[in-house]
Amino acid sequence: MSLRIAVAGKGGTGKTTLSAALVRVCLETLSGPVLAVDADPNSNFSLYLGLAESTSLADIREEKDIPAGMSKLDYMNLRVQECISEGNGVDLICMGRPEGPGCYCAVNHLLRNELAKLQHAYPVVIIDNEAGMEHLSRRTTDDVDVLLIVMGPDKASALAAERILAMVPQLQIKVGRILTVVTRREPGQEGLNSASLPANGTERAWFIPEDQAIIKMAIQGQTIFEIPSDSLALTASRQLWKTIALAQ
Of the four listed, 31, 40, 63, 203, which is most buried by Cβ atoms within 10 Å? Predict the structure, then answer.
């Protein structure tokens, strides 16, 4: 059985950065490949992992010409395998977005179905969700072992975290554990962080400190594999991963 980790939260809190950091620390301890899933229509996961962004599931669904003698299902299965970007120990699949103003529901349905088939080939699946709560209402994040709700040290992202927590039981989403992750923590913000944390529904909170190496990565277009191994964010992510992995 694979370990499925979904990352959610308000935009700008560092969900994709945390997802990429978890991929890196997973690869430090795992022998098998990690499946990274970019479930955000505004895809950026590939940049942080240093992988080429290939055809997305949304692109595949828009395709009309199916080769003669091949069923639509067989063709879709073939194309999904072709759209996986392969890296050194990590594979990436992107949801993408439909052309024009179309609804995302069909693409989310396709993503759910493909994850159900792909996940068994990977010991760990890390799903970087889009900002906000729409992915929950469309049930992109369903049947996961760990849900990480990411928030910054501010009231707005804390409110988003509270709303995400409230939606989980309402939608009957299957979630094994829920942890809050507070990013960009600086000295002197301890009181604000404690006051802003969701009161109920999470197992515990983790704090990822402000890290100049991460800021440099974003500005210079580096990947998560290029930042120093002893960076503050990676060190904290290792502790988070240890807690997640040891409890499974």
Answer: 40
